[in-house]
Specification:
By secondary structure, the protein is α/β, with parallel strands linked by helices. Helices cover 38% and strands 24% of the residues. The chain has a seven-stranded mixed β-sheet, sandwiched between helices. The radius of gyration is 18 Å and the shape is globular. Residues 1-8 have low confidence and may be disordered.
Length: 247
Amino acid sequence: MVSEGQSGMPEMANLLTEMGPPVMELFAPKAGERVLDLGCGSGFWSEEMVKRGCEVVGIDSSAQAVAAARARGVDARQMNAEAMTFESEFDGVFSNAALHWMRHPSRVVAGVTRALKPGGRFVGECGETNNVRRIVGAVSAALEKRGIEIENLHPWRFVSKEEAVGMLEAGGMVVKSVEVIERPTVLPGTIAQWLSVFANNYLFCLHPKEREAFSDEVMALCRPALLREDGKWFADFVRLRFHAVRP
């Protein structure tokens, strides 16, 4: 997994960390709990939970992210979330803006269930099926114009509310709540800069000399819907926020 916010312009990279407070509020960590931060990225929220008195293990597949989290004093480990080996040791699993980077979320859910103690909770937020739909639509149109199909290039896997409930229940969890939340968010830069930080897959299939023109075309297609009157761009985020418990 390549967690959102690990490279590129710092302001853009911090964007989704800054969207985390509602997820943390729902998770409600308590002093003395042992917590797994799934897709911990640079460890911002892991560090916050440590400050609240939790014993935290953060995992991420990115060596760069793990190094950044360790620099914060977090017990961070480089690990594929689809192949976790934890057994009944966590009171809670927290995940912010990470699950949609994992290609086989049902495997992740099975690992989370094993990792939790009976009664432990899994709380997280990820992209819903309609997340950044306008941006992806513009990218798709610009790629198709160049004879390139988009389907195998997506860096994410977004799921619907129904899919999420099905995966959580099939993984042995009891679903307490699942919400679909529209979160249109002002960007600290342009759509092109957002693509360069979070969706390089779409750019890397093009010759380097083509990428600037491609990005300009995507921005032109997005402009009517995603450029505000004050000149600021926003992303059409739609998030899936859930709370499930291991029986």
